[in-house]
Amino acid sequence: MAEAVEREAMHRALALAASVTIPDGPNPRVGCVLIDAQGQTLAEGVHRGAGTAHAEVDALSQAGAAARGATAVVTLEPCNHTGRTGPCSEALIDAGVARVVFAQADPHALASGGADRLRAAGIDVHGGLLADEASALNEAWTHAVTHGRPFVTWKVAATLDGRVAAADGSSRWITGEAARTEVHRLRERCDAIAVGTGTIKVDDPHLTARQADGTLAASQPLRVVVGMSDIAAGARVVDSAAPTLHLRTRDPAEVLDALAQREVRHLLLEGGPRLAAAFLAAGAVDEVVWYVAPVLLGSGSPAVADLGVATLGNALRLRDVRVEQVGEDARISGRI
Fold first, then answer.
1. Which residues have C-beta within 8 Å of that of residue 248, sequence separation ≥ 6?
2. One of 56, 77, 188, 270 is an active-site residue; which one?
3. SS3 141
4. pTM
């Protein structure tokens, strides 16, 4: 009975965490539910972004003295680190919580250790409940803190024959409005968006996340321009709509290292064929989101430059593939 109650509470905590629409930034999405000895909910908490109260503290502040003897069900192992806020492990101890059930173990070297600290204080601790669901909720963050580099999503909008621009260079718009709307929501979720200097020169993109009415979204990704060439002073990418970083390198490893130092957890790669090929060849693409329009060109720019693949047996293949219709277009997504 207790296990069923805690599982139900964990599902609710995951829903709370997923309800917060913040970018995949330096902090994960976390939800917490406090339940009493009878399995009744005392309070719910959620982390709303960097600098705000963590989910456990949010729930404890609502429960007050009622938290003593309660069970805290939380989607991520309580942190054991003092950063912009204090450690959640200490907050739970001070509140007199009797049991803590968490889903995902904290992979962050600086913040981990909360479970051991709670056990040392005499609190009953159980980890791993719905761990896969919690990990999937924070896929980009988990990857970034585990591997030391951002999770990279390569987004492509191409014709049926794999062209991202016509022979004259025109590329607006290959896909329809529904697909473009989805891309703006994806941009809003990511911490940074990258293109090469060639794309800046040819397309002069704004690289912002916009609402359906064309206005800027509340959250904007860091605009990253990769390459040795200068950016023209009047380029749209250097306006005040969002911050811009010019990385004078062609090495994906250097790009990812520079972004990791800025706590970028999720990078959206939207560059042209050469930048895409460089990241693919370096093994630096984790996810592909490919929009296919029912359009044929027969010539023009391909989606990706030469990868050096001479035989089908060496082709890069996607796994966990999903195919969905988006307006008149199709979205094919998967992991490499």
1. 227, 228
2. 56
3. helix
4. 0.89
Among 62, 80, 77, 121, smallest CA distance to 97 is for 121
Rounded alpha-carbon distances, angstroms, from residue 193 to 29, 155, 243: 21, 10, 11
Residue 275 has pLDDT above 60, yes or no: yes
Residue 84: per-residue pLDDT: 63
Q: Are 13 and 31 in contact (CB under 8 A)?
A: yes
Q: Has 56 been annotated as catalytic?
A: yes
Q: Where are the alpha helices (DSSP H) in the chain?
A: 2-19, 55-63, 88-95, 114-120, 131-137, 139-147, 177-189, 197-203, 252-261, 273-281
Three-state secondary structure call for residue 70: coil
Query: What pLDDT is recorded for position 1?
Result: 46
Q: Is the pLDDT of residue 109 over 80?
A: no
Structure tokens at 312: 């089908």
Beta bridge partners of 332: 290, 323
Distance of CA 189 to the CA centre of its chain: 6
φ, ψ of residue 226 to 5 degrees: the values are: -110, 130
Mean pLDDT, rounded, for 305-313: 90
For the purposes of burial, counting CB atoms within 10 Å of the CB of 227, is it exposed (0-12), middle (13-18) or buried (19 or more)?
buried
Q: Which is nearest to 103 in space by CA: 132, 80, 140, 138?
A: 132
How many whole angstroms from its chain centre is CA 180? Answer: 19
- Using the CB atoms, write b or e for 73-110: b if 16+ within 10 Å: bbbbbbbbbeeebebbbbbbbebebbbbbbbbebbbee
DSSP letter for each residue of 230-290? PPPTT-GGGSTTS-EEEE----HHHHHHHHHHTT--EEEE---HHHHHHHHHTT---EEEE
Structural tokens at position 288: 């592909």
Residue at token pair 């924070």 = 138
Contact 224, 245 (CB under 8 A): yes
